[in-house]
Amino acid sequence: QLQLVESGGGLVQPGGSLRLSCTASGMGIAPYPMRWYRQAPEKERELVADIDSNGVPSAYAASVKGRFIVSRDNVRRTIWLQMNSLKPEDTAMYYCYCRILDYGTGIWSDVWGQGTQVTVSS
Fold it and tell me: Pairing relation of β-strands 46-51 and 57-60?
């Protein structure tokens, strides 16, 4: 069973940087696109970045484009989100996400990490 664990969140001043990590255990992530989502208080969860199975970023939210970079290492079963030029509006819980296939049953499942909090404030 795939488990995702995020780390790297914290408190940072506006203009600063953070690097989030998401490490998988239980199975490999190589065949699957991976995503970062975030959710701020009283707001809907939004897609931040998407990276395909080959490590090519395929989507960024307009609000983070040019500031955030998503990357992955399938051998290390880890994806990262490098966040630069952080703004107060980037404050949110950040989640790692993967949709995986059970090849035995043909059923797709959504897998979420527990999240890591990012707070941008002076």
Answer: antiparallel
> Among all chains, which residue has been given the structure tokens 């990590």?
21
Check residue 103 and give its pLDDT: 85
Query: What pLDDT is stored for residue 1 in this prediction?
Result: 86
Round to whole Å and give the CA distance between 121 and 23: 27
Query: Could you state, in chain order, the average pLDDT of each consecutive group of 10 residues for the chain (122 residues)?
Result: 95 98 93 96 96 95 98 96 98 97 90 97 96
What residue ranges in 26-106 does DSSP mark as E strands? 34-39, 46-51, 57-60, 68-73, 78-83, 92-102
Q: What's at 5, amino acid-wise?
A: V
Phi and psi dihedrals of 89, rounded to 5? -75, -5
